Amino acid sequence: MIEEGCGGKPSRRKFINWFLNTAAGAFLLSVFYPISRYLIPPPVGESTAATVTLPTNPTEVKPNSGQIFKFGNRPGLLIRTPTGELRAFSAVCTHLACTVQYRPDLSHIWCACHNGHFDLNGINIAGPPPRPLEQYVVQARGKKIVISKSA
Ligand code: FES
Protein backbone atom coordinates (compact mmCIF):
# COMPACT_ATOMS: atom_id res chain seq x y z
CA MET A 1 0.00 0.00 0.00
CA ILE A 2 1.29 3.42 -0.94
CA GLU A 3 0.84 6.26 1.44
CA GLU A 4 -0.05 9.48 -0.34
CA GLY A 5 0.75 12.86 1.05
CA CYS A 6 -2.03 15.25 1.79
CA GLY A 7 -2.27 18.94 2.42
CA GLY A 8 0.98 19.72 0.53
CA LYS A 9 3.15 17.48 2.77
CA PRO A 10 5.56 15.19 0.96
CA SER A 11 4.54 11.57 0.94
CA ARG A 12 6.71 8.76 2.20
CA ARG A 13 7.21 7.64 -1.41
CA LYS A 14 8.45 11.10 -2.41
CA PHE A 15 10.79 11.08 0.57
CA ILE A 16 12.14 7.63 -0.33
CA ASN A 17 12.61 8.68 -3.97
CA TRP A 18 14.36 11.86 -2.87
CA PHE A 19 16.55 9.92 -0.45
CA LEU A 20 17.52 7.28 -3.02
CA ASN A 21 18.25 9.90 -5.69
CA THR A 22 20.36 11.87 -3.24
CA ALA A 23 22.19 8.73 -2.08
CA ALA A 24 22.79 7.72 -5.72
CA GLY A 25 24.07 11.22 -6.47
CA ALA A 26 26.37 11.16 -3.45
CA PHE A 27 27.63 7.73 -4.46
CA LEU A 28 28.31 8.83 -8.04
CA LEU A 29 30.04 11.96 -6.78
CA SER A 30 32.21 9.92 -4.40
CA VAL A 31 33.24 7.68 -7.31
CA PHE A 32 33.79 10.23 -10.08
CA TYR A 33 35.32 13.11 -8.12
CA PRO A 34 38.49 11.16 -7.16
CA ILE A 35 38.74 9.85 -10.73
CA SER A 36 38.51 13.37 -12.13
CA ARG A 37 41.16 14.58 -9.64
CA TYR A 38 43.39 11.71 -10.75
CA LEU A 39 42.98 12.48 -14.46
CA ILE A 40 43.13 16.29 -14.30
CA PRO A 41 46.24 17.49 -12.41
CA PRO A 42 45.88 20.64 -10.31
CA PRO A 43 47.86 23.72 -11.28
CA VAL A 44 51.14 23.77 -9.37
CA GLY A 45 52.03 27.10 -7.80
CA GLU A 46 55.46 28.57 -8.21
CA SER A 47 57.96 28.69 -5.39
CA THR A 48 58.87 32.24 -4.43
CA ALA A 49 62.53 31.38 -3.80
CA ALA A 50 65.00 32.00 -6.59
CA THR A 51 68.18 30.67 -4.97
CA VAL A 52 69.06 28.44 -2.06
CA THR A 53 72.47 27.62 -0.62
CA LEU A 54 72.89 24.16 0.86
CA PRO A 55 75.51 23.67 3.57
CA THR A 56 76.49 20.45 1.84
CA ASN A 57 80.02 19.76 0.70
CA PRO A 58 79.68 18.72 -2.96
CA THR A 59 82.28 16.00 -2.49
CA GLU A 60 80.06 14.35 0.13
CA VAL A 61 77.21 13.74 -2.30
CA LYS A 62 77.81 10.20 -3.51
CA PRO A 63 77.23 9.15 -7.12
CA ASN A 64 73.83 7.51 -7.75
CA SER A 65 72.20 9.25 -4.79
CA GLY A 66 69.66 11.93 -4.09
CA GLN A 67 68.52 14.14 -1.26
CA ILE A 68 65.56 16.37 -0.62
CA PHE A 69 66.13 20.03 0.24
CA LYS A 70 63.86 22.97 0.88
CA PHE A 71 63.51 25.41 -2.01
CA GLY A 72 61.39 28.23 -0.62
CA ASN A 73 58.14 26.64 0.46
CA ARG A 74 58.55 23.63 -1.83
CA PRO A 75 60.75 20.53 -1.77
CA GLY A 76 63.64 20.19 -4.18
CA LEU A 77 65.67 17.14 -5.14
CA LEU A 78 69.45 17.21 -5.47
CA ILE A 79 70.94 14.22 -7.21
CA ARG A 80 74.38 13.10 -8.25
CA THR A 81 74.05 10.94 -11.32
CA PRO A 82 75.89 7.63 -11.60
CA THR A 83 78.36 9.44 -13.89
CA GLY A 84 79.03 12.09 -11.23
CA GLU A 85 77.02 15.14 -12.34
CA LEU A 86 75.13 17.21 -9.79
CA ARG A 87 71.57 18.07 -10.85
CA ALA A 88 68.61 19.57 -9.05
CA PHE A 89 64.90 19.58 -9.73
CA SER A 90 61.68 20.57 -8.14
CA ALA A 91 60.64 17.53 -6.09
CA VAL A 92 56.97 18.29 -6.70
CA CYS A 93 55.51 15.64 -8.98
CA THR A 94 53.76 17.12 -12.01
CA HIS A 95 50.87 14.73 -11.58
CA LEU A 96 49.23 15.37 -8.22
CA ALA A 97 52.07 17.18 -6.42
CA CYS A 98 53.48 14.34 -4.31
CA THR A 99 57.17 14.57 -3.41
CA VAL A 100 59.39 12.58 -5.75
CA GLN A 101 62.56 10.78 -4.70
CA TYR A 102 65.71 9.36 -6.24
CA ARG A 103 65.76 5.59 -6.68
CA PRO A 104 69.37 4.31 -6.73
CA ASP A 105 68.16 0.86 -7.79
CA LEU A 106 66.56 2.34 -10.93
CA SER A 107 69.03 5.24 -11.31
CA HIS A 108 66.22 7.68 -11.89
CA ILE A 109 63.57 9.75 -10.16
CA TRP A 110 60.40 8.12 -8.95
CA CYS A 111 57.08 9.17 -7.49
CA ALA A 112 55.63 6.70 -5.04
CA CYS A 113 52.08 8.04 -5.19
CA HIS A 114 51.12 6.59 -8.59
CA ASN A 115 54.38 5.01 -9.78
CA GLY A 116 55.52 7.96 -11.89
CA HIS A 117 59.04 7.83 -13.36
CA PHE A 118 61.35 10.63 -14.50
CA ASP A 119 64.77 10.27 -16.11
CA LEU A 120 67.93 12.02 -14.96
CA ASN A 121 66.92 15.14 -16.94
CA GLY A 122 63.58 15.28 -15.10
CA ILE A 123 61.68 14.12 -18.18
CA ASN A 124 58.54 12.12 -17.45
CA ILE A 125 59.15 8.66 -18.90
CA ALA A 126 56.45 6.45 -17.37
CA GLY A 127 53.30 6.61 -15.32
CA PRO A 128 50.75 9.41 -15.08
CA PRO A 129 52.94 12.57 -14.71
CA PRO A 130 51.98 14.82 -17.66
CA ARG A 131 55.13 16.94 -17.91
CA PRO A 132 58.80 17.08 -16.80
CA LEU A 133 60.04 18.26 -13.43
CA GLU A 134 61.30 21.82 -13.24
CA GLN A 135 65.10 21.71 -13.45
CA TYR A 136 67.31 24.04 -11.41
CA VAL A 137 70.85 25.28 -11.97
CA VAL A 138 73.42 23.70 -9.61
CA GLN A 139 76.77 25.28 -8.76
CA ALA A 140 79.37 23.80 -6.42
CA ARG A 141 80.96 26.70 -4.52
CA GLY A 142 83.66 25.54 -2.14
CA LYS A 143 81.99 23.49 0.56
CA LYS A 144 78.49 24.60 -0.38
CA ILE A 145 76.03 23.95 -3.18
CA VAL A 146 74.07 26.84 -4.67
CA ILE A 147 70.85 25.96 -6.44
CA SER A 148 68.88 28.50 -8.43
CA LYS A 149 66.06 28.70 -10.88
CA SER A 150 67.16 28.95 -14.46
CA ALA A 151 66.56 32.35 -16.10
S1 FES B 1 51.49 12.29 -7.81
FE1 FES B 1 50.78 10.75 -9.16
S2 FES B 1 52.61 9.97 -9.99
FE2 FES B 1 53.29 11.55 -8.71
Key words describing this protein structure:
binds FE2/S2 (inorganic) cluster; single chain; 32% strand; Rieske Iron-sulfur Protein; 151 residues; 2 domains; alpha+beta
Task: Outline the fold blueprint.
Layout: H1 12-39, E1 51-54, E2 65-71, E3 74-80, E4 86-90, E5 101-103, E6 108-111, E7 116-118, E8 124-126, E9 135-141, E10 144-149
Antiparallel strand pairs: 1-10, 2-3, 3-4, 4-9, 5-6, 6-7, 7-8, 9-10
How would you characterize the overall build of this protein?
- The protein has 151 residues and is an alpha+beta fold.
- The protein has 2 domains: 10-40; 51-149, 3-layer Sandwich (Rieske Iron-sulfur Protein).
- It is built from 1 helix and 10 strands; from the N terminus they run H-E-E-E-E-E-E-E-E-E-E.
- It has a 6-stranded antiparallel sheet, with no helix packed on it. It has a 4-stranded antiparallel sheet with strand order 5-6-7-8, with no helix packed on it.
- The termini are far apart.
- Mean pLDDT is 88; it is low at 1-5.
- Residues 93, 95-96, 98, 111, 113-114, 116, 127-129 line the site of FE2/S2 (inorganic) cluster.
The total count of helices amounts to 1
Q: Which regions are unreliable across 5 or more consecutive residues at pLDDT < 50?
A: 1-5
What composes the largest sheet?
A: 6 strands, antiparallel
Which class best fits the helix and strand makeup?
alpha+beta
Order of helices and strands: HEEEEEEEEEE
Shape-level CATH architecture of the largest domain:
3-layer Sandwich
- Total separate domains: 2
Distance between the termini: 76 Å
Q: Determine and state the CATH class of the largest domain.
A: Mainly Beta
